[in-house]
Specification:
heterodimer; A: 259 residues; alpha/beta; Rossmann fold; nine-stranded mixed β-sheet; B: alpha+beta; Butyryl-Coa Dehydrogenase, subunit A, domain 1; Butyryl-CoA Dehydrogenase, subunit A, domain 3; four-stranded mixed β-sheet; four-stranded antiparallel β-sheet; 10 strands
Chain lengths: 259, 393
């Protein structure tokens, strides 16, 4: 099975994250880049599927040069090779144009299964899997906390507010995963050493045959017009127990629709 | 704040990242409770083994990572920053493989090292005895050759992982000459080998330390490592490397305490300002930072000498002494920075302080280190200038 796992480099959530003052896009130099956490679960799931069914795991990332760190980590975990879509023209791409660029690349490199995290911790749109499936014309299986492949049938448990739905599709397919799906492995030192020798193909916009008017900030359908720091947390509500503390607490929770 | 580091290769830098990640996600949430409950985290060593940390400084052909001490010690330091017991345990394990790697026959290495370095097994090192600590040549544990076997009798004190290890590197007397000591690799299941109840220690309570009893323990003669009578040489060489491990562990421990103190001093306000802006505490913190960085620099200097194949015993002793004395001071001052809170068990710095103390004692007390350093001053000539990467010039 030919599995492509999409990973994204995001600013470390533990550090202060900023937008650039000139175009309100993410300031990728302001914070350390790390692998989007949910994508590590996607890599792990891809590796487990490969271990169970054979085949190959290719890492696909779109991002600036320093996203190579993210590729290296996925390769150190055990992926076989990588494709790095990198071009200044891609800067500022929104979800729609990102899905276009990645779908074009996926068509080029071929796949039976595409796996990715259900959202990234930077933009948090959570729509890429659906958009990719639509653009590629393949089955869309999102928010999976369990994946099973049998022959050409792929079945997932899709997490819902009330439990899960069982959703089945046939390969090729796009799957997005949630953090309950597995426990990502740590790369071993042998894996880190092996990653050095694994092939990484760099593709520019032209090589990926991307139309210039479909990518980058100019092609974006959404625009960040303003950003403000989160307001400081307001003082909480203190319930003083005068014999009716329980009732007051319940009223408060009810007013917030917690109960 | 993580320490700034210069790593020799991209791969070693990636390894540091992975170890930091593991320490933050797997060790940090567990350390306080495990230390309080005196609960040995055996599974953590399995994880570190799978990652390749337990065999990191040994040759790849036997399952090691083939990394210089410069890299191995920085990994150890990152572990110690979060969990000293685990770093000390790793250092002891690496030490317990030292004899076989350096002095074993090819056949012995091929037979045993892959499991020892690959992380499946955990090692322990039996040198000290109840009445022979700083003076190992005074040991009385005896190994008597009987045909194809050795029969071992005696007691070994202060054994880290005692009762929990899978194998023990044991030093025992094979003749009455003062230096008539040999090195043996004793499997945990050997009949007659037993562990006393663990010591009730002041710190490093997540790491079991016990006296091992050898009561007519019979092992095949091919489990002797090196020549008969060559044990003391192995023990002393191992100690030089072990001292570097403890220097790194102490540096990491001090870094961990410093990080807690700085974090606290930035947040805690008195007289309308964060306490780090009051000069009295600010200078205390500056001294702590200088102590940690000095310890790291000295440790890595000694490591680089070792990696070049140069004599490094004096520098290892200096690193061990400086790093552990500094760790004692830094952790004590971290308690001071946190004030009353620092004295409670709800904050980690009182534990750091208890953990630092033993580091001035084990792997050669700091008085012994001063002896080693002063003897080197009396004896050694100056050393030529080394060139990293150029091998021995």
């Amino acid at each position: 099975m030919n599995i492509v796992v999409c990973v994204k480099q995001v600013p470390d959530t533990a550090t202060e994250r900023k937008l650039r003052s000139d175009d309100n896009t993410l300031d990728r130099d302001a914070a350390d880049g790390v692998v989007n956490e949910l994508d590590e679960y996607a890599v792990e799931e891809a590796l487990r599927l490969k271990e169970a069914h054979g085949g190959e795991v290719t890492v696909l990332t779109m991002g600036p040069d320093k996203a190579a760190d993210t590729i290296r980590k996925a390769l150190a975990m055990g992926a076989d090779k990588a494709v790095h879509l990198v071009d200044d023209a891609l800067h500022g791409s929104d979800a729609l144009s990102t899905s276009y660029a990645m779908a074009q690349t996926l068509k080029k490199i071929g796949f039976d299964l595409v796996i990715l995290g259900s959202e990234s911790t930077d933009a948090r749109t959570g729509v890429l899997a659906a958009m990719l499936a639509e653009r590629l014309g393949v089955a869309q299986l999102t928010l999976a906390n369990k994946v099973e492949v049998e022959g050409s049938a792929v079945t997932i448990q899709r997490v819902t507010d009330y439990g899960y739905d069982k959703v089945q599709g046939s390969l090729p397919a796009v799957i997005s995963v949630v953090e309950k799906i597995n426990e990502p492995r740590y790369p071993s030192f042998k894996g880190i050493m092996a990653a050095k020798k694994k092939p990484v193909q760099k593709l520019g916009a032209a090589e990926a045959e991307l139309a210039a008017d479909q990518i980058g900030l100019g092609a974006a359908w959404s625009e960040v017009t303003e950003a403000a720091a989160a307001p400081p947390r307001a003082a909480g509500t203190v319930v003083k127990d005068e014999g009716d503390g329980g009732v007051k607490t319940a009223d408060f929770l009810s007013s917030k629709k917690f109960i | 704040m993580p320490a700034s580091r210069v790593m020799p290769t991209r791969e070693s830098a990636d390894l540091i990242e992975v170890v930091r990640d593991l320490a933050a996600r797997e060790l940090a949430p567990r350390v306080a409770k495990a230390e309080e409950d005196e609960d040995f985290p055996r599974d953590v060593f399995t994880t570190l083994g799978a990652m390749g940390v337990l065999g990191l400084p040994y040759p790849e052909e036997y399952g090691g990572g083939g990394q210089p001490y410069e890299v191995y010690l920085q990994v150890l330091e990152e572990i110690a920053r979060v969990w000293s017991s685990v770093a000390v345990g790793t250092s002891v394990h690496v030490l317990s493989c030292f004899g076989l790697v350096g002095f074993g026959t090819e056949e012995q290495r091929r037979a045993w090292l892959p499991d020892m370095l690959g992380g499946g097994l955990l090692g322990a090192y039996c040198l000290s005895e109840p009445h022979a600590g700083s003076d190992p040549a005074a040991m009385t544990t005896r190994a008597v050759r009987e045909g194809d076997e050795y029969v071992l009798n005696g007691a070994k004190a202060w054994t880290t992982h005692g009762g929990r290890a899978d194998f023990y590197q044991v030093m025992a007397r094979t003749s009455d000459e003062r230096t008539g000591i040999s090195c043996f690799l004793v499997p945990a299941g050997a009949e007659g080998l037993s562990a006393d109840p663990p010591e009730r220690k002041m710190g490093l309570t997540g790491s079991p330390t016990a006296t091992m009893r050898l009561d007519n323990v019979r092992i095949p003669a091919d489990r002797r490592i090196g020549e008969e009578g060559g044990g003391l040489r192995i023990a002393l060489a191992a100690l030089d490397s072990g001292r570097l491990g403890i220097a790194a562990a102490a540096t990491g421990l001090a870094q961990g305490a410093l990080d807690v103190a700085v974090d606290y001093a930035r947040q805690r306000t008195t007289f309308g300002r964060p306490i780090i802006e009051h000069q009295g505490l600010a200078f205390l913190l500056a001294d702590m930072e200088a102590a940690v960085q000095s310890a790291r620099a000295m440790t890595l200097h000694a490591a680089r000498l070792k990696d070049l194949g140069r004599p490094f015993g004096r520098e290892a002793s200096i690193a061990k002494m400086v790093a552990t004395d500094n760790a004692m001071k830094v952790t004590t001052d971290a308690v001071q920075v946190l004030g009353g809170y620092g004295y409670t068990r709800d904050f980690p710095v009182e534990r750091h302080m208890r953990e630092a103390k033993v580091m001035q004692i084990f792997e050669g007390t700091n008085q012994i280190q001063r002896l080693v350093i002063s003897r080197a001053l009396a004896r050694d000539a100056g050393a030529p200038i080394g060139v990293a990467g150029a091998g021995q010039d």
